[in-house]
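Bench log. Compound arrived from synthesis this morning; before running ITC I wanted a structural hypothesis for how flavin-adenine dinucleotide sits in the protein. Inputs:
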Amino acid sequence: MTASNAYVITGASLAGAKAAETLRQEGFAGPVVLIGDETERPYERPPLSKDYLLGKAERESIHVHPASWYAEHDVDLRLGTRVTGIDPAAREVTLADGSRVGYARLLLATGSSPRRLLVPGADADGVLYLRRVADSDQIKAALATAARIVVIGAGWIGLETAAAARAADVEVTVLEAAALPLLRVLGPEAAQVFAGLHREHGVDLRFGVQVSEITSSGGRVRGVRLADGSHVQADAVIAGVGITPNTQLAEAAGLAVSNGVVVDARLRSSDPDIYAAGDVASAYHPVLGKHIRVEHWANALNQPQTAARAMLGQDVAYDRVPYFYTDQYDLGMEYAGYVEPGGYDHVVFRGDAERREFIAFWLAGGRVLAGMNVNVWDVNDAIQALVRSGKPVDTGRLADPGVPLDQVTDG
Ligand SMILES: Cc1cc2nc3c(=O)[nH]c(=O)nc-3n(C[C@H](O)[C@H](O)[C@H](O)COP(=O)(O)OP(=O)(O)OC[C@H]3O[C@@H](n4cnc5c(N)ncnc54)[C@H](O)[C@@H]3O)c2cc1C
Ligand SMILES: NC(=O)c1ccc[n+]([C@@H]2O[C@H](COP(=O)([O-])OP(=O)(O)OC[C@H]3O[C@@H](n4cnc5c(N)ncnc54)[C@H](O)[C@@H]3O)[C@@H](O)[C@H]2O)c1
C-alpha cells in the first residue's frame, strides 16, 4: 500500500474550514479532505446566540465560505460523515460506514459539546441546548411562543440567550450555581456589571441555587424545581452549563489528552503527524508559559492557520493573546488576556462602570494579565500589547482615561 499524501481535517466547523483555507493559501497542492458530522457546511457559532437568534441575520450569512468555495479550492468536503477512529500506525482514520481514509497529516478540529443536565426530568421536551444551527432555530421557535423561560447557567450562552429572550418580550429567570454570572472568567468585580445589566432588562437572576429536577406534564417541560423545594414555571428551559472538548478520538488513539488534546506551540500532538486546533486543543502558549485551552471564536479562527502552516513544515508558533467578545442588549465588549480563576490580585477600572463605558484590567504583581473594554472601542490592540509586554504598570495612570494606554508602563 502506498502512503497517502492527503491532509485530513476532522471537524468541519470554523477551525477545520480555516485550516483547509490556509493549506491552499500556502500552496499545498495535494488532497485536502475535510470531514464533518454536521450536514450544514462550516459555519460560525457566535450569531447563533445573537443576530441569527434575534432574526437579524440570515442563515447564508453565518457560513465560513460560500458553497462553491470547496470545489473551487479542490477541498473534498464530506458532510454528515463521522470519524469513528484513528489508526496512527497505519495513518488512517475510520469513518462511520467502516471505510478508511489515509493521511500524511491529520488535524483534529473536533471542537466541543454541551454538557447535559443530569437531573431527573432533563429529557423532557422543551429542554434545549445551544451549539448547532438547528438548536438556534429551535430556541428561536420556542421564544416565539413562550411566555416565560428558565435559563440554567449564567455563562456566555445563558446570558446571551437571556438577552435574546428579553428582546422577544419573554419573561426570563436565570438559575446559576455560582454567586454571580461569569464568575470564573471575570471575578466578582466585573461580574457585577453583567448582573446589573440583566436586572435592568428585567431578568430574574437567582444565584447560588441548585437545580434538583425538571418538571413536566405529558412529557413537556413545565418548570424547574430547586433544591430548596421552590419551583420556577417555564414554557421552555435553555441549559448553558458549559462544554466538554471532543477528545474521544484522540484518547482512543493513545494521544496525550489533558483537558483537551495536548499540543505544543506548533499545535502538534504527542503523535508527530497529528495536530489539533480550536476548542479541542490544549496548546502550549509561549507568552503565558503554560498549556491553555480556549473556548472562543478568535482561537478557532486563528489557531488552525498556524496548525496548517506547521503541518506543511513551516517553523511557526501560536502565541496570540486570547481574545473574545460578547454583545448583550446595548452592551458590546471585548476581552483580551488570560486569567485563571482567582489568579489576579486586583482589578483596575478606567472609565465609568456605572454607565457601562469602561475598561477593566486584571493585574497580578503590578502587571496586566487581561483587559476588557466595555462600550469603549479601538483600544483592544493596545490592551493586547500591554498584556504581551508583561511590563509593570503605574495603576494611577492605568485608571486615568486621559493617559494613552501605551504610556502606562513603568519605564
Ligand atoms: C451559540 C454560541 C455562541 C458563541 N458566541 C461566541 C462569541 O460571541 N465569541 C466568542 O469568542 N466565541 C463564541 N462562541 C464559541 C465559538 O463558537 C467556539 O469557540 C468555536 O465554535 C470553536 O470552533 P471549533 O471549530 O474549534 O469547534 P466546533 O465549533 O465545536 O466544531 C467542531 C466540529 O467538529 C464536528 N465533529 C466533532 N467530532 C467529530 C467526528 N468524530 N467526526 C466528524 N466531525 C466531528 C462537530 O460536529 C463540529 O461540527 C460561541 C459558541 C456558541 C455555541
Ligand atoms: N461570547 C462568547 O464568547 C460566547 C458566547 C456563547 C458561547 N460561548 C462559548 O460556548 C461554550 C458554552 O457556553 P456556556 O455558557 O454553556 O458555558 P460557560 O462555561 O461559559 O458557563 C456555564 C455556566 O453554567 C453554570 N453552571 C454549571 N452547571 C450548572 C448547574 N447545574 N446549575 C446552574 N448553573 C450551572 C456555571 O457556573 C457557569 O456560570 C463556552 O465554551 C463559551 O466560551 C462563548
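What the model suggests: The CA atoms of residues 23 and 308 lie 6 Å apart. The first helix runs from residue 14 to 25.
ITC booked for Thursday regardless.
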